[in-house]
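#onboarding

Welcome to the new folks! Below is a worked example of what a typical request in this channel looks like: someone posts a single protein sequence, and someone else replies with the predicted structure as tokens. Don't worry about understanding the tokens yet, we'll cover that in week two.

Example request:
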Amino acid sequence: MTRLFCLFLTLMALVPMGTVYAESTPPAAADGAGDAEPDQSTGLPLPRYASLKSDNVYVRTGPSMDYPIKWIYKKEGLPVEIIQEFDAWRKIRDPAGEIGWAHKILLSGKKTALITADEPATVYKDKDMEKPIVKFEKGVIVNVEECQKLMCRVHFAPYKGWIEKKYIWGVYGSDIFN
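Example response:
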């Protein structure tokens, strides 16, 4: 009986692997930002921004646990760009332009942005840009609450204010939302 059970477990382990390799060929890679097109699995536009849900996100060379780990992100909230979807996996691009695959449970729809300006970026009290309240150095991650045509309202406790889109990575120039 034990032999039969072991044989059954072995067969069960092999069958799904064959199916995964036979039927799980990811779609062709996206060539960059391009026009946003809905993906068949989620219906959400691609590309789009997301953020890392934890401070321990494994990025792999392909869309499966069978692929080796490329690197591990250690910064919760880091914005990433989803450029492709395959099953429960998302092909992401980080602010440095590095690309890899992360499982969807490690990503969040929470809007964040990374300050990319070489000079300190000024955050203003209002959209009129008359009252500066703080300056953020390159590399600071802020929460994005709202975006208008040229500016976004960001939050980095205890500061809230408006920053020009050109100083952040994590929203598109055309993004407008509240």
